[in-house]
Design brief:
This protein has 15 helices and 5 strands. The protein is α+β, with helices and mostly antiparallel strands. It has 2 domains: 7-90, 434 Repressor (Amino-terminal Domain) (Orthogonal Bundle), CATH 1.10.260; 108-271, Beta-Lactamase. Helix 3 packs across helix 4 (50-58), helix 3 (39-46) crosses helix 5 and helix 12 packs across helix 13.
């Protein structure tokens, strides 16, 4: 067997166990001792030999063709994000010496945008570190400050967990997005440290990580139980920042004219510094 982590085999095995025979159209004629599909059933449905599929799961063959991977993606009922991830795991990439990871920094223009945009905004790094945030983002969550990490906060901080009325769904999407962000670069020391810490500290993270779900980092509606303004329904956008290795600009915005817009305005007013006579005079002169 080939030395080293077997990311492709681990992924195939995890996804195979999540597809039921009924979903795949396989008749069940007797009691089954394994969850999901059997190896030979996946092989048959994908049009490959059972021995070859076994080699893939065991890591004895790590570079199948794109056609084979696409057939497996169909059998395993993967969506576009998960299929792209599977194709990346099977790509033949030469191993390069691991360089010391460089500290992620925020482009000056993006930092100015975050500070002046007038909506809750922050910059999320490849490993879900908070690299920059404005005051309104911190008003949404005190954990949204540079130096924080979204995974640690959502899984390990009870105050952050209380913000999400559907915490199970939020954590599922978060872990799936993290796996997509990291991709195949699983030997990075930062990745190993973070996943190791969360796997030991959070049974929920450990459960989700074992599923190997993949989800693109994109916008979605979000509902928060905010301690000051109550339930807050916002649109969350995640915009890729060009010229970076996986940084995203995250912006929250309400539907115009909604109660949520009023609540966000109230929250914004509470974050503004108190007016001073000097500031008032300066504004009048301007």
């Amino acid at each position: 067997m080939t030395d080293g982590p077997n990311a492709l085999g681990d992924y195939l095995r995890a996804r195979r166990e999540l597809v039921t025979p009924e979903q795949a159209g396989v008749p069940v004629l007797s009691a089954r001792r394994v969850p999901g599909l059997r190896r030979e059933e996946v092989a048959m449905l994908a049009g490959i030999s059972a021995d070859y599929y076994l080699r893939l799961e065991q890591g004895r063959d790590r570079n199948p063709s794109a056609q084979v991977l696409e057939s497996l993606a169909r059998v395993l009922q993967l969506d576009a994000d998960a299929t792209a991830y599977l194709l990346g795991l099977g790509a033949d990439k030469p191993r390069r010496p691991r360089r010391r990871p460089r500290r992620e920094t925020v482009q000056p223009g993006i930092a100015k945008l975050v500070a002046t945009i007038g909506l809750p905004a922050f910059v999320e790094g490849r490993y879900f570190d908070v690299l920059a945030a404005n005051a309104l983002a911190t008003a949404l969550s005190p954990r949204l400050v540079p130096g924080g990490n979204r995974l640690r906060d959502v899984f390990l901080d009870p105050a952050e967990q209380s913000l999400y009325p559907n915490w199970d769904r939020a954590t599922g999407n978060l872990v799936a997005g993290f796996r997509q962000s990291v991709g195949t670069d699983t030997d990075d020391p930062r990745f190993i440290e973070l996943v190791g810490e969360l796997s030991l500290a959070s049974p929920r993270f450990c459960q989700l990580w074992a599923r190997h779900d993949v989800l693109g980092r994109r916008g979605a509606p979000v509902i928060l139980n905010h301690p000051q303004v109550g339930e807050l329904q916002l649109n969350r956008e995640k915009l890729a920042i060009s010229g970076t290795a996986g940084q995203m600009l995250v912006i929250y915005h309400p539907d115009p004219g909604s109660d949520n817009a009023e609540k966000l305005a109230l929250l914004a007013s509470a974050t503004l510094p108190p007016a001073t006579p000097e500031a008032t005079a300066a504004n009048k002169q301007a």
